[in-house]
Amino acid sequence: MNKSICSDDMFSFLWRFTVNSVLVWSVLGLYLHINYHQPSSPTVLTMPSWVPFWPVFTIPYLAMLWVTWLLPLAIRNVGRFFACWVGMFVAYAIVVTLFVTFPTTLLRPPIPTDGWCVGLYRGLAATDPPNNVMPCAHGIGPMVAAWFTVYDRPTWRWPLVGMLVLGLSSVALVWQHRPIDIVLGTVIAAIGIAAGEALNRRNRFKRLDETAA
Q1: How would DSSP label each residue in 95-150?
Q2: DSSP state, residue 44
């Protein structure tokens, strides 16, 4: 195998890893800062009575964080990767603005005392207060990343759809966000995707014009 090709691939991977890590961890840090420094009287929300509380879904809930961080690295096309990055940036900017403008908190159920996943849920409850509830930001990264990854890796389509169904369901089932908050987060993710797609089309047309010239 050509050594220069291997070197270019490694550089591309490290570049994508660095660029996406800066965005993801900066957003997470900002989210936690807002979460821990809410005003004294946020709007108190309640979970609909028909939503069950299943702490075992803490596992897919936490896995969604890894998806946001690592899934974009599977996007090999530089233009699509940058479009994904911009899509997440735009969506997160909207969400953070809403968190600051409309602070919210959610009443949590009592923490269970038994069950094999109780420790994991206790850790989640201890580190992530139930604030920044509306809209739900947790699914934005996975949704935007999945959208652009499928262009590059079409065979991943249905596994990624399954991941999103399980992951987004887990957000409500561990009582971190209400279903309506997840819907609002999905709308914002769609706005981010539209922004990324617009950028990708503009860059693609620009490259075509340069080639024709």
Answers
A1: HHHHHHHS-EEEPPPPPPS-STTHHHHHHHHHHS-SBS-SS--TTHHHHHHHHHHH
A2: E
Burial class (CB in 10 A: 0-12, 13-18, 19+), 152: middle
Residue 103 phi, psi dihedral angles, 5° rounding: -65, 135
Phi first, then psi, for residue 155 (nearest 5°) are: -70, -10
What is the residue type of 77? Answer: N
Domains identified in the chain, total number: 1
Global pTM reads 0.88
Return per-residue pLDDT of the chain as tens, 213 residues: 444 444 446 558 888 999 999 999 999 999 999 999 988 789 999 999 999 999 999 999 999 999 999 999 999 888 899 999 999 999 999 999 999 999 999 998 887 777 677 888 888 988 998 899 999 999 999 999 999 999 889 999 999 999 999 999 999 999 999 999 999 999 999 999 999 999 888 766 555 444 444
CA distance 187 to 136: 10
- Residue 47, Cα to own-chain centre: how many angstroms? 21
Residue 26 belongs to domain spanning: 3-212
